[in-house]
Amino acid sequence: MAEVVLAGVGKVYPDGTRAVGDLNLNIADGEFLVLVGPSGCGKTTALRMVAGLEEISEGRVSVGGRVVNRVPARDRDVAMVFQSYALYPHLSVRQNIGFGLTLRKMKKDVIRKRVDAAAKTLGLEDHLERRPRNLSGGQRQRVAMGRAIVREPQAFLMDEPLSNLDAKLRVQMRAEIARIQRDLGVTTIYVTHDQTEAMTLGDRVAVMKKGELQQVAAPQELYDRPANLFVAGFIGSPAMNLLKGDLSGTEGDMRLSIGGQELRVGAGVLERRPALRDYIGRSVVVGIRPEDMEDARLSPGGEGTRLTSTAELVEAMGSDVLVHFGMEAATVVTEDTKELARDAGTDVLGTLETPHTTVVARFSPRTEVQVGDSIDVHVDTARLHFFDLDTSKSIW
Ligand code: ATP
């Protein structure tokens, strides 16, 4: 079984920088786990510790049941695919793919067989005699993958392998990587800062911030039940709208006031979030995903499901229309919006009492909203998210 386990793993660089702290992850045999987070959150460092390219300061890493802390990289039986591909320009595709095996002094016919099989999997059969400079970006990326595949390792470790490709090719290669990993069934840890890549590739996704794991869950679970404001804001595009609101009313008829406008908290919310009861009479952070809003003319809804505002910006995307509108509510400052907060003169996470927040809604393309129009926005109030104002944690 090629399970990869990180138990209490930490990294402190010689200059005292703590890049990773107390990281606990169990990656099952054959699982595709994506490590995602903003730049500098420590995901590359975590991956390099598994690969053996970085010393492990604390905790234990094991691969296939064997603790590898003191095992040199080449003996860990894992294969790394780098962002830069690291191909040898003077070698052919065949030689590049087989390079690691040649170094290991494997028999020529075994190498040939493995390279041929990998080339077939990757659709590189016709390019085996070419040099890397005569390949497209996507083909070079495949060669880098081929080099990992022929080693038949216990795990693949991939560090942003698609970031040098243009947008269209990235989508294509993303599907390729998913297919290859499924076909080969090799345990994979994949690092990216791109949440779309993480959501589409991962069996599970581990979200990191400042060296610490925030949540690890299946993509849909992360989207539906983000553990805290950071995950809520990071997963989903456009990002979840986060506003300050006040809860009032009773358990049977809970009301939410946002910037002087009132919504009725949808049926079922309390069942999913029983702890919300304790917040009646208090302020909370409300999360509304853009896709949980619609032009009220297209989706009328009942009493307490509407916000009224003016369209400030309308972006037609073809498949849908992003409508930005203002709310007289306090802005919630998260890690992502900290820059804005700093400009406005505060440096803390929390709420910023400048009473204007721009909310983004994803309307159906049938909408006919123009900038400056007064609009009624229907909110799917059964899908509202709630977070504690002080702890930033989801209220469940
Ligand atoms: P990116 O996506 O930008 O590569 P990352 O999430 O992969 O970011 P790491 O490269 O793991 O993050 O870096 C985590 C932290 O450790 C950062 O603050 C970085 O500046 C720091 N760091 C990385 N390498 C070293 C080093 N050799 N010495 C000191 N600090 C380092």
From TrEMBL:
Protein known as: Multiple sugar transport system ATP-binding protein
Keyword terms: ATP-binding, Cell membrane, Membrane, Nucleotide-binding, Sugar transport, Translocase, Transport
GO biological process, one term: carbohydrate transport
Domain ABC transporter, chain residue ranges per copy: 4-235
Source superkingdom: Bacteria
Keyword Transcription appears in the UniProt entry: no
Annotated signal peptide: none
CDD domains: ABC_MalK_N (cd03301)
Tagged with keyword Protein biosynthesis: no
SUPFAM superfamilies noted in UniProt: MOP-like, P-loop containing nucleoside triphosphate hydrolases
PROSITE patterns hit by this protein: ABC_TRANSPORTER_1 (PS00211), ABC_TRANSPORTER_2 (PS50893)
GO cellular component terms, semicolon-separated: ATP-binding cassette (ABC) transporter complex, substrate-binding subunit-containing
Single GO molecular function: ATP hydrolysis activity
